[in-house]
Request: fold
Amino acid sequence: MCHSIIICKPITTSNILIEIELMMQILPLYLPDAEFEQLKLNPSKSDRKYIRYQEFLREHAQATEQEIATFEQEYQIELPDEYREFLKQNNGGRPELDCFKDEVINYFLGVLDWPGSFDSIQHMISQRYPVGMLPIASTGGGDLLLLGWKGEFKSKIYYWSHDWEAEGSGEYYFDNVEWIADSLTDFLTMLYELEDDEFDYLGHE
Reply:
């Protein structure tokens, strides 16, 4: 059965992700053009470093197959196919539909080889999370979305709360990890826009 949003073609993981992204917009991590041009008019020394980072984000807004393969090889990770396709379309970004289960996504992380970048998956990888799971998005307050990439966790999406994290290594600790969806595609279809009354309900006046 063909979907009305895209031209009829065999249904694949890539096609499904493209269809979902047509229904929801994911804004890139870099500044909008007007703000970026304004920043470049009379930059300070610290601004110039930030400008270089912004240029880097623009150059890497979509991950290449080689960048993904290099990341997998460096960290000995085999990413699920649908997440690889997602990175090729959105190497990090801010979804306009940014809510799920009374939580808010700040931004998706990207495969970004820039030292110290909080937008980068590489920077966020640590022993704080269970083995076989990878941080893929910031949800605010230090909490994260994790993607399972191995074994029984593969392709599944989890919510990781920093409030209840292990005092030491979290590699085999699951008390602060909650299952959210069976796949990235399923998770993306869960996202919705927060209404004003819901915003007040969550304690944001």
